[in-house]
Amino acid sequence: MFTPQHIHFIGIDGISMSALALIMQMRGCKVSGSDLNFSPLTARLCENGARIYQGHAPTQVEGADMVVYTAAIRPDNPELERARGMGVPVLSRAEFLGALMGEARVGIAVSGSHGKTTTTALLGLMLEQADKNPTVLIGGELDALGGNVKVGGDEFFVAEACEYVETFLALKPQVGIVLNIDADHLDYFGDLSHVVAAFQRFVGVIPQNGLLVACRDDANVREILKFATCQVVTYGLVQGGDYFATNIALCPDGGSAFDVYARGKNMGRVRLKVNGRHNILNALACLAVGDYLNIPCTSMGETLRTFVGTHRRFELKGYFNGATIIDDYAHHPTEIVATLSAARDIAKGRIIVVFQPHTYTRTKSLMGDFAKSFADADEVIILPIYAAREKDVYGVSAKDLVAQISLVHDKVRYFASLTEAAEYLAAHLKPREMLITMGAGDVHVVGEMLLDKGE
User: Fold this and answer.
1) Which residues, given as ranges, of the chain have pLDDT below 50?
2) pTM, 2 dp
3) 3-state secondary structure the chain
4) Is 234 an annotated catalytic residue?
């Protein structure tokens, strides 16, 4: 499968595609690719010798021994059509990732509606701390790993397993993690039962001699456990799972401390630097996998104590006029609730949220849940919907969301642009307040505008 000398990646600027391309560069392959836009991810590939084209043209696949394409690429893409016409092997991103994972002695796939990036990064650092030299792909950027990918050896391979369009079914993990299951990506799945069914099939991908690590606190996760044919280990904050946390205490300087029990035995008290009960659950999942791989408890504890999280996951951006500026990727009601709960634990004053809804279908299908998710915020600012891959044909707008939130929250307002929101905040943010820019689009720019004004 991986003897080609030249691989062409269509949609190479994606967070996962650029990581796969870098892995193949490090293996000595010639890499080329194409995309509509460029970013620092593609710039790094070019620095390593990749030839990357802006836009798509059939001539750009000439000379390639294999072509890999991302899910966003249409079947009539000219490069895809040319590659198939020439008889060049063509793989989807998920198929290519699955083949790489299958080569490793221990392939680990981290799945779930929320928390995949943080958990994958934390687990990768645990393996690195234990001198396992893992290869790690994350859907974000982590300074400790040098970006969105760490190219290590071929014994341990850790990657996120995305459920969208069921691409995670192409993976070949020895160990699978299911963090949670929620109604999301409803432009594809339609409803929650379809999402649950996809995860049922995912746990069936894990071989009989493999391991499934699953969150027992999540009712939808409990429902799929019977479909696993491999060993199953559960975890949670409620006693009854194989691994659980108790005696949880918030730390004055952020994060938490808690006792960890594994099958009734006290593994000791650990300190977690990142905030939120959802991150305690993420840590338990990693501890369960690390225990399975015989990583010493002291080594795992050191990773938990020093882990600061990835970019755009409750990331401290700086301070403006005495107010704290945080940026977070939360774009689903469940994530918003978790982020604001973590913020409330450490906030010293009012919490102001600038939220940018992500996709029309998600906004429309989860409107009621979004409206209730901002209860822990003192003020909510809504921006226009970030369309991402969608067109504005769904009959929903950000103003509809404002109207719904206003039924349960007395301080919500709408701004038509990032600049207008930043100007309002520059005039109204007060010392000790916390501003959280929230969403999967470019909402982080609002905080950056404020920081630029404060310089």
Assistant:
1) none
2) 0.90
3) CCCCCEEEEECCCCHHHHHHHHHHHHCCCEEEEEECCCCHHHHHHHHCCCEEEECCCHHHHCCCCEEEECCCCCCCCHHHHHHHHHCCCEEEHHHHHHHHHHHCCEEEEEECCCCHHHHHHHHHHHHHHCCCCCEEEEEEEEHHHCEEEECCCCCEEEEECCCHHHHHHHCCCCEEEECCCCCCCHHHHCCHHHHHHHHHHHHHHCCCCCEEEEECCCHHHHHHHHHCCCEEEEEECCECECEEEEEEEECCCCCEEEEEEECCEEEEEEEECCCCHHHHHHHHHHHHHHHHCCCCHHHHHHHHHHCCCCCCCCEEEEEECCEEEEEECCCCHHHHHHHHHHHHHHCCCCEEEEECCECHHHHHHCHHHHHHCCCCCCEEEECCCECCCCCCCCCCCHHHHHHHHCCCCCCEEECCCHHHHHHHHHHHCCCCCEEEEECCCCCHHHHHHHHHHHC
4) no
